Structure formats: C-alpha cells, structure tokens
Amino acid sequence: MTGTFISFEGPDGAGKTSALKAITAALTPQLGDRLTVTREPGGNPISESIRAIILDRANTAMDYRTEALLYAAARRQHLAETILPALKAGNLVLCDRYVDSSVAYQGAGRQIGEAAVAQMNEFATDGLLPALTIYFDVPAEVGLQRIQDHRDPQKVDRLDVEKTAFHDRVRAAYLRLQQAHPDRIKLVDATQTPDQVVTAALALIKHSAGDYFTTGN
C-alpha cells in the first residue's frame, strides 16, 4: 500500500468533525481525487446500515458487547470496501473515528474492558492502524455543553445522551491511549478557536504526509 491513513478522534463535542470538514475544503484543491475522506461507523452502504442500528436512540435494549461487535463489524467492512482500496491507490485517507473510538467508548465508557475491545478490533482490522491519529481533546462538560448549544436535536444519538461520568471515562481512556502511543497519537487542544484547531491539525497532517504536498506531486 502506498497511501497514508490518518484518523481523527475525540470525545463528543470536541469539534473534530467540523475540523475535518474545514481541512477537507483546504486540501481538496491541492489533492483532488488523491484525497479520500470517510467516517466510522459508515463509509459505505453496509457500514452505514450498521451505523443506523448502533446510533438509533430507540435501541435502548442493545447489549454493550453487541454494540462493540457491531462497531467492529462496520469497521471491517469499511476497511475492506473503502479504506484499503484507497490506500492501495495511493490516496491520503482521512477518517472520522477508528479503533481508538471503540477502545475509549465501549472499552472504557461502557466498561467492558479496553484490552478486550482492542483485541476484538485487532481481529477486525488485521492489525492495521493509522500512520497518524489526531486527538481533539476537550473536557467532557465542555463537549456536552457544545452539543446542547449547537447540535440539531434530531442528530443527538445514543452516546450523546449518556451521563457525564460516561464521557469522563471516555476522555480518560483517550488520554491514556495518547500517552501510550505518543508517536502515532498527537493531541490538539480543542478548547482553542476553530481556526486554531484547524491550523494545528493541518500542520500535523502535512508533517506526517509531506510527500502529498511536495512541489510537483
């Protein structure tokens, strides 16, 4: 594979999806069809169908391990159908969430075990990790307030409505992951202004995937 894989991670309300949209707008004129932007769960019809089941607020009876398995299943299909072909084509792949989300949300947030969820996803991904993960860090109470203030109520999902303690566990797990894998996971302070956050993330992308931005490429 000749492409470069970069994931975006963060607690709910960190603003990573908005940052990804701004970054996509900035990079598309430079990279054109060499840029692939996708998301998890989702990224293709099968994975999007699984996403709808996972995030449906009506599915209150969903067992936590069922939830984790569905995320892993969506991830496997996403890899097979979307990410791997793009990497083989030499593309720069930017993905909104990946394995670290499952470790943080299901492993720590749902308290079913970070190591167990990581092992499940090792099988689902065949060990493929991003070259760079940009972690947008924000305290749980700040992220939840942003959701309350700005998100369309129709887009609030099962995870958004969890109690603050759940989101505190998620953030703590992300910080542990960043400390354990500092070469891959780079932290961006998401309490900064949106422009500052985007600038910091773009700098990390261009440092990690410099070949895409070399004059003449």
How do the helices and strands line up, and which of them pair or pack?
Blueprint: E1 4-9, H1 16-31, E2 35-39, H2 45-55, H3 64-88, E3 92-96, H4 99-109, H5 114-125, E4 132-137, H6 140-150, H7 164-180, E5 185-189, H8 194-208
Parallel strand pairs: 1-3, 1-4, 2-3, 4-5
GO molecular function: kinase activity
Function: Phosphorylation of dTMP to form dTDP in both de novo and salvage pathways of dTTP synthesis.
Binding site for ATP: 10-17
Distance between the termini: 18 Å
Let me know the average pLDDT. Answer: 93
Q: Report the β-strand fraction as a percent range.
A: 5-15%
Helix content: 40-55%
The CATH architecture can be named as 3-Layer(aba) Sandwich
Largest sheet: 5 strands, parallel
Strand sequence of the main sheet, in spatial order?
2-3-1-4-5
Structural class category: alpha/beta
Determine Rg (CA atoms, Å). 17 Å
Low-confidence stretches: none
**Helix/strand order:** EHEHHEHHEHHEH
Number of helical segments with 4 or more residues: 8
CATH class: Alpha Beta
Q: What name is given to the CATH topology?
A: Rossmann fold
Function: Phosphorylation of dTMP to form dTDP in both de novo and salvage pathways of dTTP synthesis.
Enzyme class: transferase
Keywords: ATP-binding, Kinase, Nucleotide biosynthesis, Nucleotide-binding, Transferase
Protein name: Thymidylate kinase
